[in-house]
Amino acid sequence: MKTDIILCGVGGQGILSIATIIGEAAMKENLYIKQAEVHGMSQRGGDVQSNLRISSQPIASDLIPRGQADVIISMEPMEALRYLPFLNKKGWIITSSTPFVNIPNYPEMDRLKADLEGVENVIMIDIEQLAKDNGVPRSANVILLGAAQKALGIEYEKIEEAIRRVFGRKGEAVVEANIKALAIGKEAQK
């Protein structure tokens, strides 16, 4: 088993929380894991990206080479396209359809959608609206994780258990909101 994942978005969107949950689930499965993070200007709405490599065999490097990523999980559609050169030909993009317009020359959404639809395996969902509609507005990132679960090769129950461990110290209400968000994402990707 080997899965190379690029997680990307804009500072404050919860990318590193997704990485923590996936990493926790992988470690409980006794898998090897390597992670490299790039925070950029995350406090000012800049690019945040994480390479997450999971394998049943030892991993030599924490960086994913161009053309080798199995999955890109993106909280924002333009960021998904930024890392497209790293995706392998059979890889998956799971992205939010909601743009985070933080630059004056942000591309038009129609162009972004057209570019994303040119990729063979894409799941694009409005996680922000799903989060609001379902009363979990702070868990949009976990909705995206739920939509990505099958592409990750980690059992749903293992990710659910990881959420309980990662968010347990924040209280039962936070845990349950994130478990609910995970289920919403799983359902939305169908």
Give structural notes.
The chain is α/β, with parallel strands linked by helices. 41% of the residues lie in helices and 24% in strands. It has 7 helices and 6 strands; from the N terminus they run E-H-E-E-E-H-E-H-E-H-H-H-H. It has a 6-stranded mixed beta sheet. A hairpin with an 8-residue loop joins strand 2 (32-38) and strand 3. The mean pLDDT is 92.
Average of pLDDT: 92
Q: What pattern of helices and strands is seen along the backbone?
A: EHEEEHEHEHHHH
The secondary structure category is: alpha/beta
Count of helical stretches: 7
Give me the side-by-side strand order of the main sheet: 2-3-1-4-5-6
Name the beta content range: 15-25%
Helix residue percentage: 40-55%
Distance between the termini: 24 Å
Layout of helices and strands, plus pairs?
Elements: E1 2-10, H1 15-28, E2 32-38, E3 47-55, E4 69-74, H2 77-82, E5 87-96, H3 109-117, E6 121-125, H4 127-133, H5 140-152, H6 156-167, H7 172-188
Parallel strand pairs: 1-4, 4-5, 5-6
Antiparallel strand pairs: 1-3, 2-3
Helix pairs in contact: 1-6, 4-5, 5-7, 6-7
List its traits:
six-stranded mixed β-sheet; 41% helix; alpha/beta; 190 residues; 7 helices
Brief rundown of the structure:
The chain is of the alpha/beta class and 190 residues long.
